Amino acid sequence: MSTRVRHTDVLVVGAGLAGLRVATLLAKRGYSVVVIDRRRDLTTSIRTTGIFVRRTLDDYDLPDHLLGPAIRRVVLYPPSLRDPVELVSERDEYRVGEMGPLYAAGAQAAVDAGAEMVLGTRYLGGSDGRYEVTGQDGPMTVHARFVVGADGARSRVARDLGLDRNTHLLVGAENVFNVSEPVESAAFHCVLDPRLAPGYIGWVINDGVHAHVGTAGYSKRFNGGVRGTLDEFSARAPALAEADRSPAGVERRGGPIPVGGLLRRISSPDGLLVGDAAGAVSPLTAGGLDPCLRLSDYAAAALDEALQTGRREALRDYDGGALRRKFTGRLLMRHALAQVRHPLMASAGFQVLRTPFGRAAARKVLFGDRSFPDLRGTSLARDWAKSVTVSDT
Q1: 285-315 b/e (C-beta count within 10 Å ≥ 16 → b)
Q2: Residue whose C-alpha is closest to residue 20's, from 52, 42, 51
Q3: Which end of the chain has fewer CB within 10 Å, C or N?
C-alpha cells in the first residue's frame, strides 16, 4: 500500500479540548489545519471528570445544555468519613460537563471553522516538518509548517520536538454512576485519606444526574492498585445512595495526571505543546480544563504570528518558564500534600480545617479567583489580545 501525502499549515496531534481549541482558532484565521486522534469516536475513552470552574464558565462560551447543575457546596472529609467540614460559596463555583458530547461539539466547531478531522489515526513520529501517521486508510505522511502536541501527559510530539516531558505524575481513576433520584443540593465531596488517595484526594460529585466517584494518587503507593482501591471506595463513598452503586452500566475513566507544573520548554521552531502535554495542570488541585483552554489561546496567538510572518523564532515567546514561576506556591503545596503518608497525619492536618484560619485557606483554594497565569507585559500577551477573543469558540 502506497503512503498518502498531505500538506497543511498546522498538524494538531490530539483532539481533546486543548487541541480542538487551537485548531478552531487557527482555522478561523484562514490557516489549513489537520487534526488527528487515535480514537474513532471522540465520545469514548474519556479520562477527565470534566469539572469546570467558575472562571472558565465566565470566560468561555461552553454549551450550557452539556453542563450539569451548578455546585456551590464542598464537603471535606477526614479518613474516618465522620464529622466533615462543609463550605458553601455565595457563587456558582463548579459545573460538571458531559465530556463526550463536549468533545464532539468541539470537533464540529473545528470542522465548521475549516479544520480537517482525521480520526482513528495514530501519530508515529517525525521531525523537520514531516510527520508519519497511520489510520484506517493506511499510512500517511503529513508535511506541516508546524505541529501541535495535544497528545496527553506522555506526549510523543514532545519527544520528537526535543521539548520537556512530564515526569511528576499522579494516576487517577473514576467510576461514573447514573443517579436514580435528583439531589436537593449538588455538592463536591472530597476525602483526605492517603490510603484511598496517596498524595491527593478521593472525590464524589453528585449533581443529581450522574455521580462521579474517583481517586488519584502516586501509583506506587496504592496497596490494592488504583482500580481496586476505587472499587472499595465506591462501595462506601459518601453522598451516593445504595441503589446507585450497581456496577452494571458504570462508565470507567482514568489516566495519568501531570502535577509537576507547567513545563519550561514547550515550544521549538517546529511546533509547541498544549494541555497535559505541556503540563498545563494545577499542581495542587490537578485541575486541567481551565489551564488547557487558556494556554491554547496563547498557543494560537504564537502560531498565528509565526505563520503570518514566516518567523519560526516567534514561538520563543511561547515560554513555559515565564509562566512556571506563577505556580511556585502551588508546587510547594503539592510537595507538602505528597508527604502525607499515614491516616493519622491526614486526621491531624484535618483539624486545621476546623479552625477559622483553615476554613479561610480552604475557601481560597476552592472558591478563589486565581486561574492560569497571564502574560501581561509580554509581546505574546499583546498578540493574544489582538488576535484571540476568549469567548470565541
Answers
A1: bbbbbbbbbbbbbbbbbbbbbbbeeeebebb
A2: 42
A3: N
Angle between helices 343-353 and 356-367 (to 10 degrees): 90
- Chain length of the chain: 393
With cut-offs at 50, 70 and 90, classify the pLDDT of residue 245. confident
Alpha carbon distances (Å) from 36 to 129, 226, 321, 329: 16, 30, 28, 36
* Whole-model pTM over 0.70: yes
Q: What is the mean pLDDT of the chain?
A: 90
Query: What's the gap between Cα 20 and its chain centre?
Result: 13
pLDDT, average across residues 347-373:
88
pLDDT (tens digit per residue) in 127-146:
999 999 999 889 999 999 99
Residue 228 dihedral angles phi and psi, to the nearest 5°:
-65, -40
For the segment 270-290, the average pLDDT, to the nearest whole number, is 94
What percent of the chain shows pLDDT beyond 90? 74
Task: Tell me which amino acid residue 151 is.
Answer: D
Please tell me the least confidently modeled range out of 75-84, 86-95, 202-211, 353-362. Answer: 202-211
The CATH number of 4-333+367-387 is: 3.50.50.60
Q: Provide the grid cell at 47.
A: 479520562
Cell of 4: 498518502
Domain segments of the chain: what residues? 4-333+367-387
pLDDT band, very low/low/confident/very high, at 306 (cuts 50, 70, 90): very high
Distance CA 305, CA 224 (A): 50
Q: What are phi and psi of 262, to 5 degrees?
A: -60, 135
222 and 199 Cβ atoms separated by less than 8 Å: no
H helices present in the chain, as ranges: 17-28, 54-59, 99-113, 156-161, 225-236, 289-309, 320-324, 328-338, 343-353, 356-367, 379-387
Phi, psi of 94 (to 5 degrees): -140, 150
